[in-house]
Amino acid sequence: MNTDFRIEHDFLGEKEIPNTAYYGVQTLRALENFNITGITVASEPLFIVAFAYVKKAAAMANRDLGVLDKKLAEAIIFACDELIAGKYLDQFVTDLIQGGAGTSVNMNVNEVIANIGLEYLGHQKGQYEFLHPNNHVNCSQSTNDTYPTSIMMAVHLKVDVYLKALDALRKSFLRKAEEFKNVLKMGRTQLQDAVPMTLGQEFHSFATTINDDIKHLREAQRKLRECNMGGTAIGTSINAPQGYPELCTRYLAQITKLPITLAPDLIEASSDMGTYVLVSAMLKRSALKISKICNDLRLLSSGPRAGLNEIKLPPMQPGSSIMPGKVNPVIPEVVNQTAFYVMGADVTISIAAEAGQLQLNVMEPVIAFSLFTSMNYMINAITTLRTKCVDGIVANVDVCREEVMRSIGIVTALNPLLGYETSASIAKEALATGKSIHQIVVLERKLITQQKWDEIYSFENMIHPVYING
User: Which one is catalytic: 140, 150, 320, 370?
Assistant: First the structure.
């Protein structure tokens, strides 16, 4: 007799399971069938924790309602607490993208909990007559309520991590805004000189736009607190005892310390993916705005001799295999590329949400995969941007001020005093001759005095303009 394996069966037949494995036959079938991404459920510990919370709440509700023996409930709760503590992570071997609307993940969880519980009760792994993955661990449940509820909570927890990374980046930009508050520079519209501002104002605007995304993501996150536990297969609560949906949800809120509520329409909640679409949209919005900031950082640091060269990014690595001394903006570039991935993943989520039919959306695994992956990538990208780029940015103060004083754009401040036509003629002459605005206005045409020039073009008035006329 081979003691390295145990024999388990399902209605398709028998399989040899390694005796060291806490998963069982249905997990093994998923392992054989779904070799898609190579990224397993174990790569998302928060997903496992969320699933364990769900199974624990279900066991507690089933115990109270008398449909699950107290000793069995105790074993299931023990096993769930082990998973919540981060143990047995290597036993979650199913691919995140799979057919079956998440059944393989649900059974992976059921089998691991059952086998941990069996050992707790003094039995061997696989002795399911004492504690069964379906009959006991999955009691009053279906993949169609446990899987989406677990995704919901895992995404909620992951959004917390993402918001923390975003807030750290926001604070980094605020620190730079304060550091650069007296650095005068040209603002630009359509890549052309516009009117003066400070580099601090520009960096403060980066912090403001990130803060706006934090607010919108928090609003979207609130939608992730509504579950369909107790809906079972399609939302009709078949095989669940009276009062189970409400009691299970109360326990779930209690043990997670999240304000989780029961969806008012369990049939709708079992098939609708709208919340994930909303969260993905807010994630995409955040990614593309951060990508836009990275575009700006690349432009502001362009050169150093033949570009804007208003800021210096920290030099992270040599930029060319052929051009000595070249340093590229590699950190903003990698964040740009990460954002592109997130935008594409949002399209995947949208298509998958639309692709559900009738009472179930079987495409939920790719929705979960896309949300988890996008947030993981963006958390890494945001942290990299902050620590390897933003925190080390230096202003080229002299370059910034010189660009302002030789810019044609500063003529705009003369509009209230001289009128648009005269100001336009000054700009035209400056462009044609290379003369400065000051030379034409004060020294040659004598349109205003030096004193008035100093008033109009004082540092304070250029960054906080006050209407000045004759």
Answer: 320
